[in-house]
Amino acid sequence: MRFLLILSLLISASCLAQEAVFHCNKPTVKLAKVEEGATVEHSFIIENKGKRTLIISGYKVACPCTKVYLPKEPIQPGHSVAVKVVFDTNGKSFYQDRTILLTTNCARPEKKLRFKVYVKPKTN
């Protein structure tokens, strides 16, 4: 009986080790100041450090002013892709702190990316 328990634990551990692993070297970035009305773009580099294909299937943002462009193809083990984020500053001013929640096929499926930017208000 003890042998079966140990065997099932080893099999479970080996299965868990064979998963996609999401890695972003800089998941939070501070961008340069911009004038209100500008469009801000940034690309986060995402690497799959796992043994299975990484799939980013969707995202959530709090405001439609932030658009996210996900990779069209799954990310193979050992490969990297850029996830482009575009932020429209129209109607925004001062410090802006935006979070993007990505949906993945990792063990913990929700991954967070974040950018901060200071938007100088328009002067009349």
Descriptive overview:
With 124 residues, the chain is mainly β. It has a single domain (2-120), classed as Immunoglobulin-like (Sandwich). The chain has one helix spanning 2-16; strands spanning 22-24, 28-30, 34-35, 39-48, 56-60, 66-69, 80-88, 94-104, 110-120. The strands form two sheets. Strands 2, 3, 5, 8 and 9 form a five-stranded mixed β-sheet that branches. Strand 8 (94-104) and strand 9 form a beta hairpin. The longest helix is centred in the N-terminal third of the chain and has 15 residues, at 2-16. It is elongated. It starts with a helix and ends with a strand. The model has no long low-confidence stretch (mean pLDDT 89).
Describe how the helices and strands are arranged:
Blueprint: H1 2-16, E1 22-24, E2 28-30, E3 34-35, E4 39-48, E5 56-60, E6 66-69, E7 80-88, E8 94-104, E9 110-120
Parallel strand pairs: 2-9, 3-9
Antiparallel strand pairs: 1-4, 4-7, 5-8, 6-7, 8-9
